[in-house]
């Protein structure tokens, strides 16, 4: 099973593999499985891969690719033909995900937009917390800044547009909503998501062996905690 819909050159050192045109759990599984099999069976010159909602971008060393025994006259053809030869088995497509529970203190000074989300959804803040903390989310991709995980699986009732006026600084650990996505700011950066809470966990730490806490394909569950519990985890 391959199910690739398109392959195109992004530049002279990378290609993008397209698997569909939607945001879905099935498509995320397919991309994750293909990414896994590619890293298990790398071609000469493979550097890294970057998963997205419906695609996988492959970065490579063109000199190593050109000098390799891969079939084709150009680097793009060599890599593209190799990619097309890979197949995903049902076992790989249904591989278990890594699940991470992230504690969050909702509302108050740490969730300045929770009432905006509640009003938009015609819910109480308690209902917003209950809906947000009882869903299971899928990390579709890491982007924007290092460690920022774009997560799908948000209850549609909580879908809220971004702020009309972004903040000049959103603190690291802020949990936000933008449209049908939820995410956590890994660094102190500007941003326009609706902030509903804060986690004491560090989403990105360059001093860790693996700097980013989350990766594409992970499952995330948010756990509502008290302020005392939050402070004890700092």
Automatic annotation (TrEMBL):
| Positions of the Carboxyltransferase domain | 5-214
| Keywords tagged on the record | ATP-binding, Hydrolase, Nucleotide-binding
Show the Gene3D superfamilies listed in the entry.
Answer: 3.30.1360.40, Cyclophilin-like
* GO MF entry, a single one: hydrolase activity
Under what name is this protein listed? Inhibitor of KinA
The protein's organism comes out as Pedobacter rhizosphaerae
Q: What is the lineage of its organism?
A: Bacteria, Pseudomonadati, Bacteroidota, Sphingobacteriia, Sphingobacteriales
